[in-house]
Design goal:
The protein has 416 residues and is an all-alpha fold. The chain has a single domain, classed as MFS general substrate transporter like domains (Growth Hormone, Chain: A, Up-down Bundle). 79% of the residues lie in helices and 0% in strands. Helix 3 packs antiparallel against helix 4. It is globular. The relative contact order is 0.16.
Length: 416
């Protein structure tokens, strides 16, 4: 096993921990999706309104805002203290969302909940980069994602069962309960960032780290490519329930449909991890992005031929392909973006997360608000976003993946 930081823990325990912590990000979204109708009714939102999708958007925006400070702090003080503080805020946001007396206050607590989720989002990737490198890093992240996707597979079914109790607020309280489990596990998980690899928090060091991450072709290119992939994927997350319920009139099938899509995602990502060493992360990322574009093109043609509402199973198959391919793009592109950033893994992971989640959720909100009675906005928007993202990814693949030291980079630039 290639490791940049020899560690006695076995890979299985590391993957299990990172997957569980990462699954909290999805739990914050997926358990709530079956409760959209109840939330509309509780806060007097119109069925045709896309405002309910703001529950997803504000959560992602909170994650985006929270990630930039989390990265440098974890590079300075270590990964575990940041995770502990973030999980406490995560639980507070979950409980506050459940008790919110108005839709506006609910969105405010969802934003705080997202800030709390930022810690696990950044630190889980940074921990993986602390311990692994190269295609092994990509394989571990793919394994983490495969286990992580058990959450989105089960969460909608759990959410539907909780909604069936008549107390829809339980879908938020479930996240608070799981954050306690993650907190206890974090206390048992040893630090992965040695003291001699920690970086000071000061303006010069932060600017140097951000400049290195932003000016490195591979790091920047893969990050921007993920922004557009996320824009399309977040549209699916925010609009899948209204599409199944309103466009197709099959709301009772939503949880099972979403769980089935997530199960396929997890299976394919796991299979990807098995062949990562044979084909390499760069090739797999490229093929997955091409597949995403082809699937969205097919969806667009199906929508045009069917006046915006193709057969339900056609849409299900196509969103399964697009979401699965997008997930593969995310895992491989993340490892490729972080590969050159060993010395500033936390800062680089935070910057990547802030840009992909922030701009990705904003791109998704543009499409979400247009989806009322057809899937056409999702199809055309996804095609446009992923076509742009593919071009950027191909540009990024011309960049070097050599490890960059920001201090040496600064010296080199001054000398040149």
């Amino acid at each position: 096993m290639t490791s940049t930081n020899p560690d006695p823990r076995n890979q299985t325990s590391i993957v299990a921990y990172l997957a569980f912590v990462g699954a909290l990000l999805a739990i914050g979204i997926d358990t709530a999706l079956p409760a959209f109708d109840e939330i509309r009714h509780a806060f007097s939102l119109s069925e045709a309104s896309g405002d309910v999708s703001l529950i997803v958007t504000t959560y992602f925006l909170g994650m985006a805002v929270g990630q930039l400070p989390v990265g440098p702090i974890s590079d300075r003080y270590g990964r575990r203290p940041v995770l502990i503080g973030s999980l406490l805020l995560y639980g507070f946001g979950a409980v506050g969302s459940a008790l919110a007396p108005s839709f506006g206050i609910l969105l405010a607590f969802r934003f705080l909940w997202g800030i709390g989720a930022a810690g696990p989002a950044v630190v889980s990737n940074a921990i993986a980069r602390d311990l692994y490198e190269g295609d092994h890093l990509a394989r571990v992240l793919s394994l983490v994602m495969a286990v992580f996707l058990v959450g989105p597979t089960v969460a909608p079914l759990v959410g539907q069962a909780l909604v069936a109790t008549g107390v829809w607020q339980l879908v938020f309280l479930a996240g608070g309960g799981l954050s306690v489990v993650a907190l206890l596990w974090t206390f048992q998980f040893r630090e992965t960032l040695p003291v001699d690899r920690r970086r000071p928090i000061d303006r010069v060091a932060l600017q140097r780290g951000l400049a290195t991450a932003l000016t490195h072709r591979a790091s920047t290119g893969y990050t921007v490519a993920m922004v557009f992939s996320y824009g399309a994927f977040f549209t699916f997350l925010g609009s899948s329930q209204p599409i199944v319920d309103v466009v197709y009139g099959r709301g009772h099938l939503f949880a099972a449909t979403f769980a089935g899509v997530s199960a396929v995602n997890g299976t394919c990502v796991w299979l990807t991890s098995r062949v990562m060493h044979r084909h390499g992360a760069k090739r797999i990322a490229r093929l997955a992005y091409v597949l995403t574009v082809v699937a969205y093109l097919t969806m667009t043609l199906a929508a045009v031929l069917a006046d915006g509402v193709p057969p339900f199973m056609v849409w299900v198959v196509l969103v399964t392909v697009t979401s699965t391919a997008s997930t593969v793009v995310t895992t491989t592109a993340t490892s490729l973006a972080l590969q050159p950033m060993e010395r500033i893994a936390g800062t680089a992971a935070a910057l990547r997360g802030m840009l992909t989640l922030g701009f990705g959720s904003l791109l998704a909100s543009i499409i979400d608000r247009q989806i009322t009675s057809t899937i056409t906005p999702m199809a055309i928007g996804g095609l446009l976003y992923c076509a742009i993202g593919l071009v950027v990814l191909l540009w990024a693949q011309g960049g070097s993946l050599a490890v960059v030291d920001p201090d040496r980079e600064r010296t080199r630039r001054l000398v040149s």
